[in-house]
């Protein structure tokens, strides 16, 4: 056996599959991260938004005279100013066909309210002053003359005859009447079923609460005659395209978007927001940068919310418990303006089948405008909900039919030998071993020792329950992604990607992939993502796609580096390119020990190596990848809860998960993603309650009213891996960012209902707050 060289040893430590620490962590832990609010540009002014204090009203006038007369005030912008400058409204970039094939309703959203306000917190004016305090004072002096109109906050209210209309373009407040599936086949399956389980079930509205509030700085680069926007987002390339096209009405290259560190997003910071247009107009008009940073109270109102679905979920089974069909019928709350309504529609379709053979399916969704903060993507964007609906149906069916819930799942699993499997959702599952994962989860959770633990809880006056949450989620679909590799003068190698790290930790895993591919030391790599000038494509980060698409783009780019390097090395080594081999970071002439290292070759090129015209002139690569199709991460989570019947308090006391993320590039980072997703799932299940009153006023507008889980509210997690590599991308990775939520919602809620079953409760909706549970237990 050949002895291991330094390259081999480095790959054993830093290659794919190794738990390499995140390279950005030392900087972030020292407080040296550079978030948008940390940026202060010379001569910058400050903006504050004037927001509506009512949920629905007609704008009769906006009086800015008093504000303009206040010290330090530079300007006050309204919709009329944006319109005069040629700025357009925000638009929904996706249109999903209605049941009848017609397009869904997509009324535009003005950056500053035009004729009406439609939710509490909608921006009506933008005040710019020398200091933030002066802008705040002046914003309070702007007088809004609003004729208050009746408000609706739920889809059922909004669809009632005579309900107040939000948009003229959407009669009856209906955005989209969506249908998917074979209605006749589903109807037949339910008619012939030996048993039908039916649940009215809610996926509650959540407020995203990223650690870093939104912030942006708008300016005008007079030399290059273009706008510049510093902003926290999920992908600078896509944000630039949408903002330039719809709002600024300029070619994409007339807008430069820059993003530094981003303190969380979970889908919320992905799209353009109304504040960005006024900032850019103010920056151009004043000839100086204009900075705006949300306060947390504003974030509660103006950041997009997540979830908010009401469903009737139904499962048809034969006498042996085999699934015949699943049907979802219900509503998705769009809020006051429409963003791609994927969670309530297509993502529900893709994910409700879960890991089970289900011959027929149907999804009926009415997406509806209401006088509430708009709903957009939130970690999973319909994927966790689909799995949650199915897993709650299965536990309920098992109880109703007297079948063990594990056995019922086993009877209906899609078998590993059945792969590839074409689901009625239209998805083609390429890989998976669902039965083995369930068995492993049962074993690691010590399922068979539960009765003793339950008895111990009973002695302490507590109810105890356990729940299973199997899941399969469909990652984002194929598209375009950028993979650039640039050899720098200082000997480092820059990786350029159209994905964007907002907490996931991209730098280490991408470096691991390329270190293994090119044999370059891990520590030489640097990652560049947040500069739209440096990118030629980019889908951003979302839908658990970054490891899949980013790695694929870099592997393809790495192959081009090797191809170009062989031609250049052939010239340097005075050999035929056909005789050049590459391995372990070194080009060699086949059958000899003559060669040159990749980094040494890069150094020669930088030093002025003269190359023939028919030989590549650089090792640098700028590559746009056609990304792989969706992958199917899956797994099984097991939760145990204790309930105090005297107070209604729910505690998650044990938590186990077995996940199939395919090839795991960095297990340390993957476990961190799983932990975060599970905590957010626990938050939605138990803590996070968003409430509006009858006038559309939010009653949960601060952390005094809106509860988030803390470290003390969750147990230690046991994380096991059962990887079945995906067959549709080179590395076999499946994605992991949203899986924690997908497993947590059903496992925790099934555990709660299991605990309550002994007192006769068979269903309860999220969030299971102490007040709600106490009322259920006490018949109030």
TrEMBL record:
Keywords attached to this entry: Molybdenum, Oxidoreductase
SUPFAM superfamilies given for it? CO dehydrogenase molybdoprotein N-domain-like, Molybdenum cofactor-binding domain
Which superkingdom is the protein from? Bacteria
Query: Where do the coiled-coil regions begin and end?
Result: none
Q: Which InterPro entries match?
A: Ald_Oxase/Xan_DH_a/b, Ald_Oxase/Xan_DH_a/b_sf, Ald_Oxase/xanthine_DH-like, AldOxase/xan_DH_MoCoBD1, AldOxase/xan_DH_MoCoBD2, AldOxase/xan_DH_Mopterin-bd_sf
Keyword Phosphoprotein (UniProt): no
Identify the residues that the record assigns to the Aldehyde oxidase/xanthine dehydrogenase a/b hammerhead domain, covering every copy.
Answer: 30-150
* Pfam families in the record: Ald_Xan_dh_C, MoCoBD_1, MoCoBD_2
PANTHER family xref list: ALDEHYDE OXIDASE 1-RELATED, XANTHINE DEHYDROGENASE
What is the name listed in the Swiss-Prot or TrEMBL entry for this protein? Carbon-monoxide dehydrogenase large subunit
């Amino acid at each position: 056996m050949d002895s291991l060289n330094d390259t081999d040893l480095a790959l054993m430590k830093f290659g794919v599959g190794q738990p390499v620490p995140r390279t950005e962590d030392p900087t972030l832990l020292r407080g040296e991260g550079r978030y948008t609010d940390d940026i202060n540009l010379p001569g910058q002014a400050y903006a504050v938004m004037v927001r509506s204090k009512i949920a629905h009203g007609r704008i009769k006038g906006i009086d800015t005279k008093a504000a303009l007369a206040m010290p330090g005030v530079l300007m006050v912008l309204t919709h009329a100013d944006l319109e005069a400058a040629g700025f357009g409204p925000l638009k929904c970039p996706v249109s999903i066909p209605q049941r009848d094939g017609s397009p869904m309703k997509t009324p535009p959203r003005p950056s500053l309210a035009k004729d009406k306000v439609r939710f509490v917190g909608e921006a009506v004016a933008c005040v710019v002053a020398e200091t933030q305090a002066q802008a705040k004072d002046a914003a309070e002096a702007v007088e809004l003359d609003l004729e208050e109109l009746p408000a609706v906050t739920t889809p059922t209210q909004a669809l009632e005859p005579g309900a107040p209309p939000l948009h003229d373009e959407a009669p009856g407040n209906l955005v989209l009447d969506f249908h998917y599936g074979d209605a006749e086949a589903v109807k037949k399956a339910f008619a012939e079923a030996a048993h039908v389980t039916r649940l009215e079930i809610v996926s509650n509205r959540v407020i995203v609460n990223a650690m870093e509030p939104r912030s942006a700085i708008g300016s005008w680069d007079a030399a290059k005659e273009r706008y510049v926007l510093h902003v926290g987002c999920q992908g600078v390339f896509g944000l630039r395209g949408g903002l330039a096209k719809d709002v600024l009405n300029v070619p994409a290259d007339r807008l430069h978007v820059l993003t530094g560190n981003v303190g969380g997003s979970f889908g919320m910071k992905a799209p353009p927001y109304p504040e960005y247009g006024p900032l850019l107009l103010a920056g151009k008009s004043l000839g100086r940068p204009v900075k705006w940073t949300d306060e947390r109270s504003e974030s509660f109102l103006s950041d997009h919310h997540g979830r908010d679905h009401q469903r009737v979920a139904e499962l048809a089974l034969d006498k042996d418990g085999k699934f015949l069909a699943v049907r979802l019928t219900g509503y998705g709350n769009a809020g006051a303006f429409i963003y791609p309504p994927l969670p309530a529609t297509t993502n529900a379709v893709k994910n409700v089948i879960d890991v089970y053979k289900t011959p027929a399916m149907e999804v009926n969704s009415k997406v509806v405008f209401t006088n509430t903060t708009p709903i957009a993507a939130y970690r999973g964007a319909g994927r966790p909900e689909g799995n949650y609906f199915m897993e709650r149906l299965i536990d309920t069916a098992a109880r109703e039919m007297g079948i063990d819930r594990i056995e019922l799942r086993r009877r209906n699993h899609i078998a590993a030998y059945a792969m590839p499997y074409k689901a009625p959702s239209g998805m083609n599952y390429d890989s998976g071993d669902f039965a083995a994962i369930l068995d492993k989860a049962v074993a690691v959770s010590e399922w068979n020792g539960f009765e003793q633990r339950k008895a111990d809880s009973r002695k302490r006056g507590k109810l105890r329950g356990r729940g299973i949450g199997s899941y399969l989620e469909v990652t984002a679909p194929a598209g375009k992604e950028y993979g650039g590799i640039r050899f720098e003068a200082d000997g480092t190698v820059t990786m350029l990607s159209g994905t964007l790290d907002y907490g996931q930790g991209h730098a280490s895993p991408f470096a691991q992939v390329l270190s293994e591919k090119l044999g370059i030391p891990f520590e030489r790599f640097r990652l560049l993502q947040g500069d739209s000038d440096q990118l030629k494509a980019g889908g951003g980060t979302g839908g658990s796609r970054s490891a899949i698409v980013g790695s694929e783009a870099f592997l393809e780019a790495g192959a081009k580096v090797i191809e170009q390097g062989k031609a250049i090395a052939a010239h340097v080594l005075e050999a035929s390119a056909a005789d050049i081999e590459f391995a372990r970071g070194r080009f060699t002439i086949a059958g000899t020990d003559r060669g040159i290292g990749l980094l040494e070759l890069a150094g020669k090129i930088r030093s002025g190596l003269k190359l023939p015209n028919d030989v590549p002139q650089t090792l640098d690569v700028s590559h746009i990848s056609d990304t792989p199709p969706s992958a199917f991460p899956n797994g099984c989570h097991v939760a145990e809860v204790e309930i105090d019947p005297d107070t209604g308090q729910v505690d998650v006391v044990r938590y186990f998960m077995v996940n199939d993320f395919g090839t795991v590039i960095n297990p340390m980072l993957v476990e961190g993603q799983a932990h975060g997703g599970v905590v957010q799932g626990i938050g939605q299940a138990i803590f996070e309650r968003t409430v509006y009153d009858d006038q559309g006023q939010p009653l949960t507008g601060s952390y005094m009213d809106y509860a988030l889980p803390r470290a003390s509210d969750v147990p230690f997690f046991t994380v096991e891996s059962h990887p079945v590599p995906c067959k549709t991308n080179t590395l076999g990775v499946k994605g992991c960012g949203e899986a924690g939520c997908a497993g947590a919602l059903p496992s925790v809620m099934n555990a709660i209902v299991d605990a309550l079953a002994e007192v006769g409760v068979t269903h309860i909706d999220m969030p299971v707050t102490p007040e709600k549970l106490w009322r259920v237990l006490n018949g109030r």
